[in-house]
Amino acid sequence: ITTSAADPAARPASAAPPSGDQASPGHGLLLDHAQRRVRIDGREVQLTFQEFELLAFLTAHPAVVFTRAELVERIWHRTLGQDGRPLPRDSRTVDVHVSRLRRKLGPCYGACLVTEYRVGYQFRPRPA
Q1: What is the CA radius of gyration of the chain?
Q2: Torsion angle, CA of 78/81/85/91, rounded to 10 degrees?
């Protein structure tokens, strides 16, 4: 993971490049919070607003498990659904967004989004 010295808002997501070699500029998973962009090994990955929010939140709290309810409150900033009823504690909204993120991040970095069975999700960085 590398950070662009020219852009302090671009921060690594604490996931090492797949080879385990010394990271060179443009390699690894990089989140640019100022421009709301994600790059993997130098190529940009298109994420929706909520996908970026979810990834940014989880990468900011590596190895911490969050329940679906906690993620809905913290990412979507609500406890009620669009119909005004309370969101279920096991909301599938989070599952769908995590699934989409995994697919977009690819097998190498998608694997960093770890499901804790019957609990929730965490971002588990790849070893350096």
Answers
A1: 15
A2: -90
pLDDT, one tens digit per residue, over 35-53 is 999 999 999 999 999 999 9
68 C-beta neighbours (distance < 10 Å), count = 20
Instruction: Look up residue 82 and give its amino acid.
Output: Q
pLDDT at 55 > cutoff 60:
yes
Which residues have CB under 8 Å from 51's CB, separation 6+? 97, 100, 101, 104
Q: Residue 95 and residue 68: Cα distance in Å, rounded?
A: 8
Q: Quick check: 26 pLDDT over 80?
A: no
* Tokens at 6, concatenated: 């020219």
pLDDT band at 76 (very low <50, low <70, confident <90, very high): confident
Separation of CA 11 from chain center: 13
C-alpha–C-alpha distance, residues 44 and 107, integer Å:
16
